[in-house]
Amino acid sequence: MKQLIFFLMCFASFGSKAQTDLPLGLWIDNAERILRAQTSASVLKMNINKAEYQRDFTLLVLTDDRNDTQKVMVRMLGPALWRGNMTLKIDDRISFFEPRNKRTTIMSSSMLASSWMGSHFSNDDLMRETDLARHYSYEAKEAWQKDARNYHLIELTPQPSAPVVWAKVLYRLYIDNDRVFPEQVTYYRRKEDKHPERTLTYSEVKNMDGMLVPTVMEMRVSDKPQEFTRMHYQKIKFNTDLAASKFSEQAFL
Amino acid sequence: MIHKLALRNLLRNKRRSCLTSVIIVFAFSMMVLFMGLSDGGHKAMIDIGVRMGLGHIIVQHKSFSDDPSLQHLIVQPNQLIQQIRQNKPELTAVSRLRVDALIQAGRHGVALTISGVEPAKEVKMSAIADQRAITKGKTLAEFPQSKTFHHLDGIVIGETLANNLEVRVGDTVTITAKPASGADLSRAAFVVAGIFKTGLHELDTFWAEVPLHTLQALLGVPDQVSQISLYSLETPESLAHTTTQLQTSFNHVNISPWQTAAPELYSAVTLDAAGMYLLMLIVYVVVAVGILNTVLMSTFKRKKEFTMMIALGSRPSTVSKIVLLEAVYLSAFSLTLGLALGLWGHHHFATQGLDFKEVFGTAMEAGGVLLPDKFYSILDASKLSLSVLFVFLLTLVVTLIPAIRAGHRSPLAATQDA
């Protein structure tokens, strides 16, 4: 159903932005999915750098987008204190598993805004309720060429009654060999704001499992310039046949 | 004759009579003043309390107080309101739907209580987001309601919440809540229509109001509300009677007075009233001891006088009556003066009000209610006359024993003592 809505939105955006003739919605969707493909299994290091503390996690992330229900499973591999902690997201439902007391917590609405494992990503970012491809309309702001690549800056504006918190999102992406790569996403609190509230940057494009993908994602908030959360992909396997049982609460035990 | 004697006796020792009189006048006038201010304060607390999202009478689903979930809502509230108003046309009814939710703006999010209200009715009855409480922007009633798909509904939020979320009037916020079906979370966007300040931390930080129909749609509970608040101009006694009457007529819902619906406010008022009664008791004791002291001293000092009267042929009861009458005149005079002084003070505070902020430098919160900066003295005539009567009787009781003893002294023993 979500995909159907997405395609309808894409068609709508093609219609409304016919003068640009650019499939902006499709590009953004492709860029958002670059690290996921149909299914993906990845190991990544997450480095949280806050004024109060520094944390390093090693995570195993499994994703499955083969049907309408988006599934994501995050298992913590290290450090030892956190080993076995899991987060499971099936569509809009998130549950957390704590192995020491074998307790599963289903996320409530009040937990949405809290950060995921103390990082600069919120549970809401994991939920992807504020789906960029679904709730926003697109406008090509700028296009340029650099290093034989076509760069585009796209401004995303929320649909009139979309339930989203960002009044403006600037998406910078480039197209290389017909593939869309995200480079920077800046989130603005208000439409007229000059400075973004937070910035997500993709970098270090490397070959993983036969595909070129950005391997570093970094989130920074503007009012604390020294702080960031960086996710560094170590290994990724795309389009493997992941069993449905991996994405159930039975997999916690 | 004995009246004349009693009055003469009082005037003979002017200093003693005056001192006793001053004690009674001062104590009684203070008591009248405090009684008025305390009752006025309680009334202000209750008035503010019921206007802060409560109501004089609250109608809820039978199980709502035990489990305030979306499964326990009142269905078709308007029908029920119509029936209630047929029984009691003097009551004003307001429907509200409340739920815990998450408000988000940018990367900030706060868990809070969201109240779905009927803006046009709410603005008249509630003090949370009325014209006076709104510091920036508009009330929900003034904000244009969403008529088309391309227009967001308004939301009013507390001042501290607005600071925490870093939002201002005109910004967009989202509300996320778990709908009645218990399935995935529902989310809707709102435009900040206004920012209110009540002075109460809980409301200013964790409270927001949106139009009722929007919240009903978000939660998937069409034509259902958490509570119907009834507002009345009746006295507390007749309010209790109305509540009982309504509960008998509509036994499928739970109808409770504000005392049950807001026990913390009720306890605060009761506790304060208990403190006042304790103060009154102390005043009574002071008055009683003052009079007892004077009467005892005067009877001791006038032993010779009394025995002389008895020796000259007065009956013991005459002597007792004279002593008793002295106390009656003294207390009657002092009470009248005290009452006049107290009423004068009451009149001042009833018309000018007591400026709480001026006296204590800060606003005061009690029972989850912020007392108004100024409150006005209120005196209950029956309570006042009862106090006068009580002090008067107390004087008589206290004087009784010394008076009887004064009349039963033997002239022989008195001369031997001398």
Summarize the structure.
By secondary structure, chain A is mostly beta strands. Chain A is 13% helix and 47% strand. Chain B has a 6-stranded mixed barrel, surrounded by 4 helices.
pLDDT averaged over residues of chain B: 84
Percent helix of chain B, as a range, is 40-55%
| Order of SSEs of chain A | HHEEEEEEHHEEEEEEE
The top-level CATH class of chain A is Mainly Beta
Biggest protein-protein interface? A-B, 27 and 28 residues
Please identify the structural class of chain A as seen in this structure: mainly beta
What average pLDDT do the residues of chain A reach?
Answer: 83
Query: How far do the termini of chain B sit from each other?
Result: 28 Å
Largest sheet of chain A, in brief, is: 13 strands, antiparallel
How much strand of chain B?
Answer: 15-25%
Strand content of chain A: over 45%
Helix content, binned percent of chain A: 10-25%
Per the CATH scheme, the topology name of chain A is outer membrane lipoprotein receptor (LolB), chain A
Low-confidence segments of chain A, ≥5 residues, pLDDT <50?
A: 1-20
What oligomerization state is this entry in? heterodimer
Tally of DSSP β-strands of chain A: 13
When the domains of chain B are counted, the total is 2
